[in-house]
């Protein structure tokens, strides 16, 4: 029996995968709507292919959701780890979840932390658990970190297939966790200790952030020097050992823009490159807005087609989206009429909906009316736009779709 705490983007697919391997799973979430939706066999998040699997898991009787935890052999913590204040990790959800399961934990149980966490968190989970349930002290309870590594949009494929890092607070915990994940993960299960596993996950996302920052910095340098950054990167990447990522309007989502700060917080003096990369990426929306203000000065009545507001292509996810942030600021500053084209949503988010100069419209309509085209997200349909429609417009292409 398994109890999964937190039924969001990671907890729900994980609970579902395990349940569909014939193991009884109790999913726990504090939000009544989430629990009710899942118990109807439906989902509350957007993730391709997941709905069918949840339906299967619930109708088989192997997946049940509840607002309370449940006794189990294995407890998986999949709760958010955002940051607070001056970019410090907020572990309050992990601590609350640990204290909540404590009365249900028995000798021999395994507690797995999947949430992306700063170094030392798995050990803190152990300490919080013993603090809440002192009767367990001296008995064998196992604790591991097994960080989630799936790409939103590809979770169904990546969850069973990706290799996993498994780090216990001791060797027995590591081995017990590997034996558990073997039942439903086909990727390799790589053993280490808890602290290395924690830093490994943070390292993966920081690696990506630093590399995106390199591309973003190049785009700013190229603007200054009058060079086409897309051509530059294409050419440089023909070197056998160069592989530059793509510049954009900034880095969005919950992970890459957050996790590097956990390293900076743990080693503030040492993590210079990682901190600078974060700053470069966080500054990119301002660079894009500067270009829009310049363009707006050159036309009498600016009408701006804002192409895409999600945080990455071909999804409807607007969370921590730099593109959305740019459009919100342009709206607040009253730069002109904003025609938002976002093929993956049917209504504008609240932050834009009430604004008199912002409307959601189709690509054709927007391109017909705009004098400035601001390409923010490389959605697939945008790649097929007839270039002739852009001929008389000022084009600001943050993604190189038209390059
Ligand atoms: N981006 C660029 N240029 C690029 C690649 C990405 O600007 O060349 C931007 C995207 O537009 C987006 C942001 O970076 O705004 C992040 O997108 P992403 O697709 O790179 O990653 P996420 O945030 O959806 O998922 C990441 C993944 N981590 C890595 O690839 C190392 C995923 O495997 C993790 O599980 C996930 O974070 C997580 O939950 O931590």
How would you spell out the order of helices and strands? EHEHHEEEEHEHEHEHEHHHHEHEHEHEHE
Please report the first level of CATH classification, the CATH class of the largest domain: Alpha Beta
Average pLDDT, to the nearest integer? Answer: 96
The shape, in one word, is: globular
Which terms summarize this structure?
403 residues; alpha/beta; Rossmann fold; 8-stranded mixed beta sheet; 5-stranded parallel beta sheet; 15 helices; binds ligand SAJ
Give an overview in words.
The chain has 403 residues and is of the alpha/beta class. It folds into two domains: 2-201, 3-Layer(aba) Sandwich (Rossmann fold); 298-403, Rossmann fold (3-Layer(aba) Sandwich). Helix content is 42%, strand content 15%. The model has no long low-confidence stretch (mean pLDDT 96). Bound molecules: ligand SAJ. Residues 116, 148-152, 204-205, 208, 212, 245-246, 248, 251-253, 255-256, 311-312 line the site of ligand SAJ.
TL;DR of this structure?
The protein is α/β, with parallel strands linked by helices. It is 42% helix and 15% strand. The model has no long low-confidence stretch (mean pLDDT 96).
Please render the helix and strand layout as text.
Layout: E1 2-5, H1 11-19, E2 25-28, H2 32-39, H3 50-59, E3 63-66, E4 74-77, E5 83-84, E6 88-89, H4 92-101, E7 110-113, H5 121-132, E8 142-145, H6 155-161, E9 164-168, H7 171-181, E10 189-193, H8 194-225, H9 229-236, H10 259-266, H11 272-297, E11 303-307, H12 322-333, E12 337-341, H13 350-353, E13 358-360, H14 363-369, E14 372-375, H15 380-383, E15 394-397
Helix pairs in contact: 1-3, 4-5, 8-10, 8-11, 10-11, 11-12
This protein binds ligand SAJ.
Ligand SAJ binds next to helix 8.
């Amino acid at each position: 029996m398994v109890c999964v705490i937190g039924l969001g983007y990671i907890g729900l697919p994980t609970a579902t995968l395990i349940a569909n391997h014939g193991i009884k799973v109790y999913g726990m979430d504090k939000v009544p709507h989430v629990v009710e939706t899942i118990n109807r066999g439906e989902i509350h998040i957007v993730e391709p292919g997941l709905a069918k699997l949840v339906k299967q898991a619930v109708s088989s009787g192997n997946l049940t959701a509840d607002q309370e935890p449940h006794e189990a052999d294995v407890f998986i913590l999949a709760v958010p780890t955002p940051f607070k204040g001056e970019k410090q990790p907020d572990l309050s959800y992990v601590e609350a979840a640990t204290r909540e399961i404590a009365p249900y934990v028995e000798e021999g149980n395994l507690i797995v932390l999947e949430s992306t966490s700063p170094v030392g968190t798995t050990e803190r989970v152990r300490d919080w658990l013993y603090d809440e349930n002192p009767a367990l002290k001296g008995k064998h309870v196992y604790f591991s970190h097994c960080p989630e590594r799936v790409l939103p949009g590809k979770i169904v494929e990546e969850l069973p297939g990706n290799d996993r890092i498994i780090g216990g607070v001791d060797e027995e915990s590591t081995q017990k966790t590997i034996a558990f994940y073997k039942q439903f993960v086909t990727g390799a299960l790589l053993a280490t200790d808890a602290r290395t596993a924690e830093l490994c996950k943070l390292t993966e996302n920081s690696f990506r952030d630093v590399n995106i920052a390199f591309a973003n910095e190049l785009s700013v340098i190229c603007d200054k020097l009058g060079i086409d950054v897309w051509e530059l990167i294409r050419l440089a990447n023909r070197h056998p050992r160069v592989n530059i990522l793509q510049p954009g309007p900034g880095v969005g989502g919950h992970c890459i823009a957050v996790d590097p700060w956990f390293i900076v917080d743990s080693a503030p003096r040492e993590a210079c490159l990682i901190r600078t990369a974060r700053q470069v990426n966080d500054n990119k929306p301002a660079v894009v807005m500067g270009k829009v203000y310049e363009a707006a000065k050159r036309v009498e009545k600016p009408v701006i087609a804002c192409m895409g507001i999600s945080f990455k292509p071909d999804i409807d996810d607007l969370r921590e989206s730099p593109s959305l942030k740019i459009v919100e600021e342009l709206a607040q500053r009253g730069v002109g009429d904003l025609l938002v084209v976002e093929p993956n949503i049917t209504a504008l988010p609240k932050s834009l909906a009430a604004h008199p100069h912002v409307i959601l419209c189709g690509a054709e309509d927007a391109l017909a009316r705009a004098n400035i085209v601001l390409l923010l997200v490389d959605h697939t349909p945008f790649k097929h736009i007839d270039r002739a429609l852009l001929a008389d417009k000022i084009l600001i292409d943050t993604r190189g779709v038209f390059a």
